[in-house]
Specification:
By secondary structure, the protein is mostly helical. It has one domain. The chain has three helices and no strands. The termini are far apart.
């Protein structure tokens, strides 16, 4: 849901590895792209 995604973006929710994998598939990226630290941080 939009509320769940918003919670993920704001750091209020912790996704399971399955959720990370499913989000990556939906976005067309590797699951590692979602968990790799941002180089600009």
């Amino acid at each position: 849901s939009q509320q769940y995604i918003s919670g993920l973006e704001k750091g209020r929710r912790n996704p399971t590895i399955i959720t990370i994998y499913e989000l990556a598939l939906a976005l067309g990226v590797s699951h590692m792209d979602l968990v790799r630290p941002d180089k600009q941080a």
